[in-house]
Amino acid sequence: MNEPRRGEPRGTPTLRRTTRDPEDLARRLTAWVTTWQPAAVVTRYEIPPSNGMSSETILFDLQRPGATPQPCVLRLAADPLAYSVFPRYDMARQYRTIALVAERTKVPVPRLLRLETDPGPLGALGFVMERACGRVPPDVLPYTYPGSWLYEASAHQRDQLERSTVDVLAELHTVPAAEARFLTPDADGDTALRRHVNEQRAYYTWVIADHSPSPLIEHAFARLEELWPEDPGESVLSWGDARIGNIVYAADFTPSAVLDWEMASVGPRELDLGWLVFLHRFFQDLTERSGHLGLPGFLDRDRVAARYARQTGHAPRDMEFYSLYAALRHALVMLRVGYRRVHFGEIPMPADTDSLILHRSAIEDMLEGRYW
After folding, report:
1. Where does the record place the region Disordered (predicted)?
2. What's the whole-model pTM score?
3. For residue 141, is the peptide bond before it cis, meaning its omega torsion is within 30 degrees of 0?
4. What is the H or E stretch that residue 279 is in?
5. Measured distance CA(82)–CA(359) in Å, rounded
């Protein structure tokens, strides 16, 4: 069992986040860089403690003769031997999405440097981009806990962060679905929303393979059908993982870089809005259950919707559906993460599958109409 990271209570096991050999990966990266930057060397190589369980992040500096070191980030497809969170990782698709956002919008994204589509040199597909400067709201311990820079910020500063984050979504959603067809190459006659939900159903089937079904998740899928929007509206480019933990913020609490595009898709604007709001509530709920105040009122669903409407002229609708859908999508990831912990012997397999879903009570309350 791994030791807890700084800031976590003693006795709390950390999640295994990689099975790769850091020294081997460093050697591979150093050799690979010379194939496209012959005179450059890799310095200050680091795998951050916050490295995710999905695509892996490696930080390094690219040192060219006579030049200032260039801070870089390598994003590498997850190791399939590490019980990955998703069934596949299309790094070229992520790279192309970031390029589209950079070309078509004013949304700040890191400058792309290199795409590697041959798994040989690095042991997996990946790409390199410039590293952005700034601060990211932490997941561990969550930014809703006392001591985080966002918790200690003033009400005005948090309001600035919220407003500028909504502006990111408003700007991103100016990209129509037609310009991101590569995100849905096998689209059939269904609507973008129906395809999106069908993909999540397929993901659920993959997650529970060789495991018991989740009554809670299946109930939530059924409830979505009852709440299905009469008119989902136009489809746009959707970030997919639209949360403040995937944004680097500058000193003035505005975004300097928007990260993590592996869940990008096309669909209604409300997909991102629902995810943004619920993922904050997920952390807020965990914080309140631990006896802390958290950040009540921050990223309030109605206020976010109102801000988005003022910015875009589009009044978000069917937010009960999209909020539940966000909670359901997050539950699928949590279930996979739970099975991953079982796989690595960090926890025993529970008798109740739904106990692996940390926000189980939130979904139950949503299904009963008493959460929001």
Report:
1. 1-22
2. 0.93
3. yes
4. helix 270-289
5. 24
